[in-house]
Amino acid sequence: MPIAGAVDPVPVPRTLAPRPDGLKDLVGLPRAAIADLLAEAGLADAKQAKMRSRQIWSWIYNRGVTDFAGMSDLSKPLREALADHFVVGRPEVVEAHVSIDGTRKWLLRSGGEEYEMVFIPDADRGTLCVSSQVGCTLNCRFCLTGTMKLVRNLTASEIVGQVMLARDSLGEWPSQPEGRLLTNIVMMGMGEPLYNFENVRDALKIVMDGDGLALSKRRITLSTSGVVPMMERAGAEIGVNLAVSLHAVTKEIRDEIVPLNKKYGIDELLKACADYPGANNARRITFEYVMLKDKNDSDEDAHELVRLLKRYDLPAKVNLIPFNPWPGALYETSTPERVQRFSDIVFRGGISAPVRRPRGRDIMAACGQLKSSSEKMSRAELDRRAAEKEASW
Ligand code: SAH
Ligand code: SF4
After folding, report:
1. Residue where a domain terminates, one of 49, 64, 87
2. Residue 142's closest CA among 304, 370, 342, 353?
3. Is 140 a pocket residue for ligand 1 (Cβ < 6 Å)?
4. pTM as predicted
5. Do 143 and 191 share a domain, yes or no?
6. Whether the CB of 137 sits within 6 Å of ligand 1
7. What is the pLDDT of residues 175-213, one digit of tens each?
C-alpha cells in the first residue's frame, strides 16, 4: 500500500518571487481565502466578506473580468479599494504560435520564469494541455522537458491562470455550459503534476467548481510518470481521470527511458493503478506508451503489455504515442507499420489501443516537445543532466 501523504524529497529550488507591486493575485484562491483576504484588508466584516467573495468569484470565473472597475455590482469605493490590494492576474504571453493543423502553443511567463501551454482543437472537443512545473525534476530520456535544468513548481494561480488565458484567447466569456471550444483539460504539459500535488489539486478544484469554470472531472486527465506514493491521494482528493506513462514492459527498458522506474517499479506502479480510487470500466485508466523504434515496439512487448494489464485486472486503455522528435533526441519514431501492428496485437488482447495522431509538431507543441528555450544538446550533456537529476532524488 502506498503510504498516504509520503512525498519524495524532490528538490524544487526556486520559489515564486512576490509581485514587485506587492499586490496579491486572487486567481487560484478558493472563495474562503478571498473572503479572509477581504476581511484582513479591512474591506468587509466577516459576513459581508463571504458575500463579496462570491460576487468577485463570479466576475472572475464566469465573466473573465480582470479589472475591478468592471465589477458593477460592487460599490465604487470597494472596487477602488480592491484595486489597491489585489489583482486578477494572467500569465504574460511571450510568444503565441499556430500549427498548420490548428493546434496553438503559447509561451507564458510569470514570476520571471517561462513555461508552455497548448490547445488542441478537434471536431468534437477542444483540449488544453496545461503545465504543472517549469521544467521537470524527472528525466525521461525521450522527453525534451526532461532535459531542462531549471525547475520550479507552478502555483495554483499560475495553473488556473493558463485555463483563464486560454478562455480569453478563445473568446469564451461569459462562461456557458454549451458550445464551448475548451471542453477538456489534460495535465500533460511541462512537469510532473504529482510532484506539485497541492497546487495541482487546488487549481483543479477551482477549475471543477460548478459556480465558475465548471469543467467536469470526467473531462480532466492527470498524467503521471508513476509517482506511486501520491497516486492514492490524487484519486481521493482530485478524482480526475488518470493517465500513466508506462512506455515499457520490462525493468531494463523502463529503467532506461523512465528512470523513475528504478525507484517505483512496474509492479508497484500497476498495483497502485489497481488501487486507484474511482477507476472502473466506465472510467478506465489510460496507459501511455511512446513508440520508440527498436526500443519498446516489438511484438513481444505488445503481448507482454496485454499480459501485465490483465494480470492486475486493470480497467485499462492504451494510448500509443508515436515518438515526437526534438533536436538532439536519442531515439527515433517507430515506423507506422510497426505502430499499427503493435496496436493490433493489443486490440486482439481485448484492450483498446488507438494510435494518437501527433498534433502541432511543426510548432514543437506535440507531447514531449515542450521546453521554454530550444538548444541542441550533445549526448554527453544529456547524460550529465540526467545523472544530475537522478542524484537529487
Ligand atoms: N509528466 C507527466 C505528464 C507530461 S508528459 C508524465 O510524464 O506523464 C505527457 C505525455 O507525453 C507522457 O506520457 C510523456 O511520457 C509523453 N512524452 C514525453 N516526451 C514525448 C515525446 N518526445 N514523444 C511522444 N510522447 C512523449
Ligand atoms: Fe517529466 Fe513527464 Fe517529461 Fe518525464 S515525460 S521528463 S515526467 S514531463
Report:
1. 87
2. 370
3. yes
4. 0.94
5. yes
6. no
7. 877 788 999 999 999 999 999 999 999 999 999 999 999
